[in-house]
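Q: What would this chain look like folded?
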Amino acid sequence: MSLSARHLMLSKSGRTLLEVPQLDLLPGQLHALLGPNGAGKSTLLSALSGMERSTALQVMLQGRPLSQWDTLDLARQRALMTQDHQVPFDFEVDDIVRMGRYPHSEHPHPQEHTLIDHCLALAGARALKGRRYEQLSGGEKARVQLARVLAQVHARPSDTSPRWLLLDEPTAALDLAHQHAVMRLLRQLTAQGMGVLVVLHDINLASAYADQVLVMNDGRIDASGRSMHVLQPPLVQRIWGVMCERLTRQNCLPSNDERGWLAFS
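A: My prediction, written as structure tokens:
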């Protein structure tokens, strides 16, 4: 039931954008995708979602290449949240979230009439219900778009196959409280069996919440594994050129959790 890739290569205008020989992501885990600007994070996310048609044969969901999936079937299994939160018309918030339910129009959920409110509440955006989308702040738009992709992957009770959320910097426009609220929500969703791949720039958010991290550089996955093993000062200095040290988080986490904060200098 994994999301995987084999021999994933993408080049444009003579420049290699992606070179990923093998990648296996498991549902029920929060995977954080890190790396400097231009490392290929958004490109990899787009390829894994099926938006990059030239690589659809190299990416597999549940063991089947994305090129063999029906468009609506794929839309019900995975949702992509990009960095661009603009929409061409000034819809109400409810309408934006309801767009996520389009793939389910032929087979609606038994509680379809309550799903919009439910997903807005999960994303911390219930208070925005009824407002015009273009009147929202950047952070408010991000929370509405998160509610939209949550609505898209909300399955009928009889469908127990794992869903996938692919999120490109969902915390970028959020204040500190909402950043942690979103990451806690993603942890809750993975505990329910969902697979999540999230692009982050905040290394400490990844360290605190991710089960696995993937560090990209120049279109390649430079390092991957558990956050406490991968996010060490030598790697941070090599990839980002920034000095840091790892601090333990005593009294904040269970004693068997080795994760801590990185303090930058």
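The chain has one domain: 3-227.
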